Amino acid sequence: MTANLKIKNIKVIHAAFEDEPVHIANYKLLTSDQVFIGVGKYTTKDVLQNVWQGTQNIEDSWSNPDAIGVEYDYNVDKLENVEVLKPLKIIKGKAYGHRSTSVGDYMIVQYKDLDVESLYMCEPAGFSLKQSNHGTPINLTDCKCGLVMGTERAARIKARQA
Fold it and tell me: 1 lies in a domain?
């Protein structure tokens, strides 16, 4: 799975705990990433790993630039090439960031100069390719939801489907 193709964008889709898939963010590759891909030093899965790491709440919040932890005077987790698309929840005047990307979430890789999109699922170790489309975009409905859930959520989903 080498990525000698230029990647234009990666859509981050949260679906693991959701009832509906949510296009939560876009990850734009930096020029240095594109160079490493071009010479074969990065594979698509290496890039997906970078996206996964860039959408984790470790010290602060990857999605809330105003969240600052106790150890640093700036947001360590916020990356400039991650564009948050879904507005943050505001509770009692305070903005709360989105959850980390998890097992059961998806990433859609969009390639430059090609009309191809590939859908990957975050697995317990790495990523699995679920589908690639040429000429038609991948729909969010192709992402299964609630793959990581408790019995209460599973019962609600089953009741809705009945």
Answer: no
- For residue 88, give both structure tokens: 């943050």
Residue 63 placed within a domain: yes
Structure-token pair, residue 18 = 């959701």
In a domain, 143, yes or no: yes
Q: What is the C-alpha to C-alpha distance for residues 12 and 58, in angstroms, rounded to an integer? A: 18
Q: What span, in angstroms and rounded, lies between the C-alpha atoms of 27 and 153? A: 29
Number of structural domains the chain divides into: 1
Closest CA to 47 of 113, 116, 120, 102: 120
For residue 21, what pLDDT band results from cuts at 50, 70 and 90? very high
| pLDDT tens digit sequence for 69-101 | 777 777 777 888 899 999 999 999 988 999 999
pLDDT value of residue 3: 44
Query: Could you give the dihedral angle defined by the CA atoms of residues 20, 125, 118 and 29, in that order, rounded to the nearest 10 degrees?
Result: 100
Task: Return the residue matching tokens 């009309």.
Answer: 115
Residue 22 · residue 60 · CB < 8 Å: no
Query: Locate tokens 């000698």: which residue?
Result: 4
Largest CA distance in the chain: 52
The values of phi and psi at residue 17, to 5°, are -110, 0
